[in-house]
Specification:
- The protein is mainly β.
- Strands 2, 4, 5, 6, 9, 10 and 11 form a seven-stranded mixed β-sheet that branches.
């Protein structure tokens, strides 16, 4: 059983920053990919950023240059540093891990006011 626990969401003004954290526990093995997705009301869930167990990262075009995904000293921890936030970044952000199967966290709300 794999579990993901997220934290760090909140309310911020446009131009501000937030940092999301996610810790995975359980049998995740040594090769996996962790990532962040987001879902705004009435819209599909979109992938924001991913990082593999060897450190390779990928970003959605909409967040390139503003968001940074990274791992903690413990490889089962991932962060999403979000800078220069825009109102359109408002969404529930979900952490995920692909380790054979895909597992999702419970989501954390990020609200950016204009």
């Amino acid at each position: 059983q794999v579990q993901l626990v997220e934290s760090g969401g909140g309310l911020v003004q446009a131009g501000g920053s937030l940092r999301l954290s996610c810790a995975a526990s359980g049998n995740i093995g040594s090769r996996f990919r962790m990532g962040w997705s987001r879902q705004a009301p009435g819209k599909p869930r979109d992938l924001v950023a991913t990082i593999t167990s060897d450190g390779t990262t990928n970003y959605a075009d909409s967040v390139k240059g503003r968001f940074t995904i990274s791992r903690g000293n413990a490889k089962n921890t991932v962060y999403l540093q979000m800078n220069a936030l825009k109102p359109e970044d408002t969404a529930v952000y979900y952490c995920s891990i692909l380790a054979g199967l895909i597992y999702w966290g419970q989501g954390t709300q990020v609200t950016v006011s204009s």
